[in-house]
Write a structure and sequence with these properties.
This protein has five helices and six strands; from the N terminus they run ααββββααββα. By secondary structure, it is an alpha+beta fold. The chain has a single domain, classed as Aspartate Aminotransferase, domain 1. It has a six-stranded antiparallel β-sheet. β5 and β6 form a beta hairpin. It is globular and about 40 Å long. The model has no long low-confidence stretch (mean pLDDT about 95).
Length: about 120
């Protein structure tokens, strides 16, 4: 988690910091082959140099950004989990629980779908 320490240190609210750290640690444990990086001041996970998932924090929520293709594919699951989303990100309110099975499905999909991707973002 050394890569994310500076990002985590900037989160003022202790419970929010704990939640974000918990999610990032869970991903590291579930997907140990993913590389941890910080780009655009956001913690991200990549696979062979291609973006898999990223996170950011706001006053009322943590944002999860797996790319719009993933959000489209899992839109019903995202709504069923009770999360609000846009075309590019999912909002998990600080009062909501994290649906780790949904996160796992989205990350696994992105890894598989981008297995031959040679760019950071999808084209």
């Amino acid at each position: 988690m050394e890569v994310f320490e500076a990002f985590l240190a900037k989160i003022d609210h202790p419970e929010h910091k704990e939640r974000v750290e918990e999610v990032l640690c869970w991903i590291k444990k579930q997907f140990p082959n993913l590389e941890q990086v910080v780009k655009w001041n956001q913690p991200m996970f990549t696979d062979h140099g291609t973006f898999i998932i990223g996170f950011s924090v706001a006053k009322h929520h943590m944002s999860v950004a797996p790319e719009s293709v993933v959000i489209e594919r899992f839109s019903d699951d995202i709504k069923q989990a009770g999360y609000d989303h846009t075309k590019e990100l999912i909002r998990i309110k600080w009062t909501d629980s994290v649906d780790y099975s949904l996160l796992e499905k989205m990350i696994a999909f992105n890894i598989e779908d981008k297995i031959d991707c040679t760019t950071f973002w999808r084209k």
